From TrEMBL:
Belongs to the ATP-dependent AMP-binding enzyme family. Residues 410-482 form the AMP-binding enzyme C-terminal domain. The keyword Ligase applies. SUPFAM superfamilies: Acetyl-CoA synthetase-like. Coiled coil: none annotated. GO terms for molecular function: CoA-ligase activity. Residues 8-360 form the AMP-dependent synthetase/ligase domain. The lineage of its organism: Bacteria, Bacillati, Actinomycetota, Actinomycetes, Pseudonocardiales. Keywords: Ligase. Pfam families: AMP-binding, AMP-binding_C. It comes from the Bacteria. This is Acyl-CoA synthetase (AMP-forming)/AMP-acid ligase II.
Length: 490
């Protein structure tokens, strides 16, 4: 099974190299391998069986990945949950998957003491976790196939209730091997992971671990924490969302932080603003790699490497996402599912061995995103003559103004070019005359709505311009950096 093979291979090749490090401890590949095996036996002794679902509720730390690998070794399914969601929402997800066990931090586990299905609870920060498996060396573990389900990863729920995406070990393997062929990472990478380990973005971390990298974990992103981690560990890579990069450069600590070790910044989940990209290239002088992915298709399946990124002065529109990794396929299709010619905008669909087995216990929702064997991403875009995918917007976010399509991301991108605008989000609102018109929510300093509307007049066609602009303190985003437009609509 892929995760077990990954740990065994790296123990053989790099036994004394640091595999994982957080703010409290670090483990070598030999220690990580042995601990995950011990932990798997300990969980089996507690009664966790093949096919059981085990919730992991914690901020990022070494024990999270130890748990994922141990649960997978048992043939059980690890179910990471967003530790920041409200207790009732988390409880609904736990009950929906029928979890029999919960691992995590005490403070988070204590919010859920009355769940009928959960019979096993183990806290990372109590002696019971450290002792787990130490007295059960003879427990036999099952043989686990790559086709066995290994995890239920919940979507980010930007448009509604989070769905549980069921993936197998073969999905992790397919994405990792395709990505490694495309990105060709060296095995001396030290990567600071700024993204949470509880949804599809964690597949990026698993992929670089497969290459023998050292992964630096943080209990939640702050600019100061990320800057300090790069400097302390002489990180060669960072994995983040563009807004995190903006916040890092705004931090006072950025003025003195030594970031010279960085060779590559991986970014995804949201478009890279031109001003942030320009600033980052000038400050860091390293390469940039775009990551485009979706939990339902196995995580990262498209990338644009450093050599393909434009020079800052050449960026006139959004940077393309890149090409699909080997083993996966993508195309733009019309509403009938017919593939569109180069350059024509349609919905991006994906297929390949990385795609999910389906939504957990939700065949109807699975059918809704499946089209003749392809997964429908909900993203609108097109492919250029070199096979690069260019995203335009989410299909659900497109504003239809008197029959004309307005892509909110385009309006947001133009707004962000104004020097006073720090962030922006555009949604459609009902209109008696046109059916729907754009409304812009803007975070800005020292600028008025009439001034911004005048600026847009010079940069957007009339039908694309917002009817009005509302100033807000912050654009609501989830931990992955995606705009929560349902909150703005509410």
């Amino acid at each position: 099974m892929w995760l077990t093979q990954l740990a065994e291979r790296n123990r053989q090749c790099f036994p004394n190299r640091t595999a994982l490090v957080d703010e409290h401890r670090s483990v070598t590949w030999a220690e990580f391998h042995d601990r995950t095996l011990e932990l798997a036996r300990g969980l089996a002794e507690l009664g966790v069986r093949r096919g059981d679902r085990v919730v992991v509720l914690s901020q990022d730390r070494v024990e999270v990945l130890e748990s994922y690998f141990a649960i997978a070794r048992l043939g059980a399914l690890f179910v990471p949950l967003n530790h920041s969601v409200a207790a009732p929402e988390a409880a609904e997800m736990i009950e929906r998957v029928g979890a029999v066990a919960m691992l995590g931090e005490s403070e988070l586990l204590d919010r859920h003491t009355d769940l009928p299905s959960v019979r096993i609870r183990v806290s990372f920060d109590k002696p019971e976790f450290a002792e787990l498996g130490s007295t059960s060396p003879d427990v036999e573990l099952p043989e686990v196939a790559d086709t066995d389900p290994v995890a239920v990863l919940h979507t980010s729920a930007t448009t509604g209730r989070a769905k549980g995406v069921t993936v197998d070990a073969g999905s992790f393997r397919a994405i990792a091997l395709g990505w490694l062929v495309q990105a060709r990472p060296t095995d001396d990478i030290v990567m600071v992971n700024c993204c949470p380990l509880y949804h599809g973005s964690m597949v990026v971390s698993l992929t670089y671990l497969a290459a023998g990298a050292t992964l630096v974990l943080m209990p939640g992103f702050t600019p100061q924490r990320a800057l300090a981690a790069v400097e302390k560990h002489r990180a060669t890579h960072m994995w983040l969302v563009p807004q995190m990069l903006r916040f890092m450069f705004q931090a006072k600590a950025a003025e003195s932080a030594d970031l010279s070790s960085l060779r590559e910044v991986l970014y995804g989940a949201a478009p890279m603003p031109i001003d942030v990209y320009t600033d980052a290239v000038g400050r860091l002088g390293c390469g940039f790699r775009q990551v485009y992915g979706m939990t339902e298709v196995g995580g990262p399946f498209v990338t644009l490497g450093p050599d393909e990124h434009p020079q800052p002065g050449d960026v006139t529109a959004r940077i393309p996402c890149g090409r699909v990794i080997p083993g996966m396929s993508a195309r733009a299709v019309d509403k009938r599912g017919v593939e569109l010619p180069t350059g024509e905008i349609g919905e991006i669909v994906v297929r390949g061995p990385g795609v999910m087995q389906g939504y957990w216990n939700d065949p109807e929702a699975t059918r809704e995103v499946t089209l003749d064997g392809w997964i429908v991403t909900g993203d609108l875009g097109f492919l250029d003559e070199d096979g690069r995918i260019h995203l335009v917007d989410r299909s659900k976010d497109v504003i239809i103004r008197a029959g004309q399509n307005v892509y909110p991301s385009e309006v947001e991108r133009v707004l962000m070019t104004h020097p006073a605008v720090r962030d922006a989000a555009v949604i459609g609102v009902p209109d008696d005359d046109y059916g729907e018109v754009p409304l812009a929510h803007v975070v800005a300093d020292d600028v008025t709505a009439p001034e911004l509307l005048a600026f847009l007049k010079d940069n957007l066609a009339p039908y694309k311009r917002p009817r009005r602009i509302e100033f807000i303190d912050a654009v609501p985003r989830n931990p992955a950096g995606k705009i929560l437009k349902k909150q703005l609509r509410a």
